[in-house]
From TrEMBL:
One of its GO terms (cellular component) is plasma membrane. This is Glycerol-3-phosphate transporter. Keywords: Membrane, Transmembrane, Transmembrane helix. Belongs to the major facilitator superfamily. Organophosphate:Pi antiporter (OPA) (TC 2.A.1.4) family. It is a multi-pass membrane protein. It comes from Arthrobacter pityocampae.
Length: 466
């Protein structure tokens, strides 16, 4: 469904006018469509890829300097967990709220503005004296950073839905999803460079912030909103590939809240998908965020070696994500849940090695385990977001993905940061890893249930077409 900007629309009432999605342009002739469509598809893909990678450069660099904050600024393990949790919870809430707004906003404006604001928050941390002396002050700034960080995923998901059809979206989403890993690994590289060059932890924030201001400008010039706003046909028409879920006539007069309530909040499959995301994100951040601290405390790693483990985790997600997307399309024939479960079983085994390998073994063993965990966990991360897009109409696709993200970041991030911080502080790493392994099993259980629902939906759709 195309977006309008007439005076009575939700966008005009709830958004600043300049953020509202542009109206459809006059349809171009067929020859021009065939020439411009492939070019713009590549261009907008590069825009969301580069832009979203930029978000990760400034999302949460606290773990990269956690040992410095602990040793030089007096932060406790719990304090570090609180600061880390602040940005992740704020991000989760914002991802859902921003998705509702983003579904009716211009992706070309929404994504770069959020990135620029996040860059400014990191510049503030880097240049304002005294932030490191207060956990509360630090957490407040990170809450703001987390909130504007939520402006990155929804316009990216919306762009994928509008510019790429269902049959190709799995591979395209997997390819886009490695922006997470490139940005995450890049944050470690930039932080390491800044620490080595400038010699203080603040540089790990302001240096990536400057880089991201430039990236925000680049993303603006690359991005476009919908094909219709460029005078092109909808992607389903262009590729003759109908969407698996579409809104019906009853939705034409429905309010935004009514549509979200029908397809997202009261959708049992979407709720189970969101619960799976809770435990997948607990795994992802429970290992990633605490990797520098765990490697330092239990494996004797230096600050640089801890940051290297962080970056290896992220880089490993690149081939892992692409492999998962390929397997879900080619081996499992579009069934996302079996692919996700297969990868989670591998995560379970790798976490065991990461935890139980003897202390006197080489640090390379811990690195290898981190590589396997990172290589496998981003597959389910990608698939859950993809399933949310696939199992909802285009007009609420971003909101559906934001809903699963809300659960993942608010609940999952709380378990991964503050929860694990408390567990380590009170019970040690052994109990903590038992909790992490329990999360693997719970994630598998919810993904299995979602897979059954997805299979039933496929059968219903097939019966309706016959």
């Amino acid at each position: 469904m195309t977006q309008t900007t007439t005076s009575g629309t939700w966008a005009d009432k709830g958004l600043m006018r300049f953020l509202a999605a542009p109206p459809p342009a006059e349809r171009l002739d067929d020859a021009t469509v065939q020439k411009r469509y492939p070019k713009l598809r590549l261009q907008v893909f590069l825009g969301i890829f580069i832009g979203y990678a930029g978000y990760y450069l400034v999302r949460n660099n606290v773990p990269l300097v956690a040992t410095i904050l602990r040793d030089e600024e007096g932060f406790t393990t719990l304090g570090l967990g609180i600061v880390t949790n602040a940005v992740l919870v704020a991000y989760g809430l914002s991802k859902f709220l921003s998705a509702i707004v983003s579904d009716r906003s211009s992706a070309r404006l929404f994504l770069p503005i959020g990135l620029a604001l996040s860059a400014l928050a990191n510049l503030f941390i880097g240049f304002v004296p005294g932030i490191g002396a207060s956990v509360a002050f630090f957490a407040v700034i990170m809450i703001f950073n987390g909130f504007v960080q939520g402006m990155g995923w929804p316009p990216s998901g919306r762009t994928l839905v509008h510019w790429f059809s269902t049959s190709e979206r799995g591979s395209k989403t997997a390819l886009w999803n490695i922006a997470h890993n490139i940005g995450g690994a890049g944050s470690g590289a930039l932080a390491g460079l800044a620490l080595a060059t400038f010699g203080n932890w603040q540089a790990a924030f302001w240096f990536p912030g400057i880089v991201c201001l430039v990236i925000a400008v680049i993303a603006f010039f690359l991005l476009r909103d919908t094909p219709e706003s460029e005078g092109l046909p909808p992607i389903e028409e262009y590729r003759a590939d109908p969407a698996p879920v579409s809104s019906d006539a009853a939705d034409d007069d429905a309010t935004t809240w009514q549509t979200v309530n029908r397809y997202v909040l009261r959708n049992a499959t979407m709720v189970k998908l969101a619960m799976a995301n809770v435990f997948v994100y607990t795994l992802r951040y429970g290992v990633l965020v605490w990797a520098p601290v765990y490697l330092a405390d239990e494996r004797g790693a230096s600050l640089g070696e801890g940051i290297a483990g962080f970056s290896l985790f992220e880089l490993a997600g690149i081939p892992g994500t692409l492999l998962c997307g390929y397997l879900s399309d080619k081996v499992f024939r579009g069934r996302r849940s079996p692919a996700g479960i297969t990868f989670l079983i591998g995560v379970f085994l790798a976490v065991l090695v990461y935890w139980l390998s003897p202390v006197d073994w080489p640090l390379g063993v811990s690195y290898a385990a981190l590589v396997v965990i990172g290589g496998l966990i981003y597959g389910p991360v990608m698939l859950i977001g993809l399933q949310a897009l696939d199992l909802s109409p285009r007009k609420v696709a971003g909101t559906a993905a934001g809903f699963t993200g809300l659960f993942g970041y608010v609940l999952g991030a709380t378990l991964a940061s503050t929860g694990i911080g408390l567990a380590v502080h009170n019970f040690g790493w052994d109990v903590t890893f038992i909790l992490i392994l329990a999360c693997v099993l719970l994630a598998i259980a919810f993904m299995y249930s979602v897979g059954r629902d997805e299979q039933a939906m496929r059968k219903r759709n097939l019966a309706e077409r016959v």
